[in-house]
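Subject: Interface between my chains keeps coming out wrong

I've been trying for a while to get a sensible model of this assembly. When I model each chain on its own everything looks fine, but I need the whole thing in one frame so I can look at the contacts. Pasting all components below, labels as-is. Any help appreciated, I'm running out of ideas.
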Amino acid sequence: MAEYVGVLILFALVSVPACLYLAIAGRGASARAQEASSEPPPENARGAVPGASLLVAAIAYLVLQAAVLLLVPWFLFFAELGPMGLVSGALFALPLLVGFAYLWSRGALDG
Amino acid sequence: MSPEALVPNLLALTAQALSLAFVLFVVGVPLVAWAERKQAARIENRRGIGGTAIAEISLVGLLQPLADALKLLSKRGPSPTHSGQGVQVLFSALVLSVTVVAFAAIPWSGRYVFGDGSFSLILADVEMGVLFIFALLALSALVTVWAGMKGGIRSRVGTFRLAARSLSGELALLLALLPMLMIYGSLRLGDMVAWQDTSFSPLGAWNLLAQGSGSLSGLNLGLPAWGVLLNPLAFILVLTAASLRLGLAPFDAERGEAELEAGPRGAFSGPGLGFLALAARLELLLVAALVTLIFFGGWAIPWLPQATLVAVLAEFIGAWLANAICLGLHLAVFLLKLSGVVFLELLIRSALPRFDHARTMDLCWKILMPAAVVDIVFTAAVLFQLGGAPG
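Reply #2:
Try treating it as a single job with all components included. I did that and got this:
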């Protein structure tokens, strides 16, 4: 875990000054000026709902990304696993590929 | 770690972190911004930037990025206390910070021995290097989407599109990278470069040919074992998927001047917008660094492995100086390759028109992902045939 100390230090060195600068830069701006210059607030924007493309992408992403992340160790040690490793990996990936083909054939992936 | 060693170690890490931040903000981002505008102007047959001068010094436009940054940062931002956007304006700082932190896992040189210890130009040599960077980029996208959802209706529409593109692009990028993980057998970027610091004969075909011809059999025509030569398809897929994932051109439709919505950026102004612009340039640099390390051998010099170079130099000037010269040479080589990849990315940006959202999604799901799966199967078959990693 010692290598993550450098990461924390770098994060602090960038985020703290950036946040402080934003706080100072926004000092003095009135709420009225802010409202006049910005877009309509979200409560007036009920028409903006996520499209089907985003929902399908999100669901497919959740399923496939989890599967791929589970497979990362398999990919790293693929060469040492031998024929059984190849077969077990293929068996794991097959249902995902079938599901992907089904989504495609139903037109769910059309942009 | 003993308490006596803790304070010097923390000081050294802080100095390294400060140096990295300085290099990124003062050298990296301005140079990328300058190159981007100069190259676009050259391609479009314009003069481009060059008019900004401080004390009558213009430096062929190098001061223009500084002037742009000062202009954005000196504007008054939204009030964190009055407008109810306190959390939102801080999102831009978080996006910038997370993008900078991803550079902590990028190695800028190999590891060199000095006396009893060793030295490497990397802030955090994490074992899960690639996944660590992926996690931070995912966090950056999540924060951007969160900020965009708090904006107005136009900001929301753009944010939905950005969310769909980011999710799809991330999966495509990971799939496209898997063949390289299979070849290198490691997630640590330094290990990947060390693996590429050698030569290979492409599929042994040349050797077979040379055996049949007496005059050619003595030639050593091994190629550098760079990822781009071992698996060119993976290089094309990763470059495309990374651009798509990070919203770099030509997949940055929501940033187009002709678009009504600016995505999550529509919710920001002044310094917040400036921070997001900085983060976008840093992301371009990050992708270029990843591509250089995974596909172009990082700091490796073709046909001159690190061990050979240090051994040859050490005979004349001693081991310490040999390692120091090797460090400088490798850093220069890495920066040269990095500049080449940045130039390639900017060329793609200038040469291709923007893709609309539907075409981007089609490209991702119907071309990139199936091609990545085919590449995985092909790589697995070749590795299985070879009985392990080639090289």
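Reply #3:
Confirming on my end. The CA atoms of residues 129 and 189 of chain B lie 6 Å apart.
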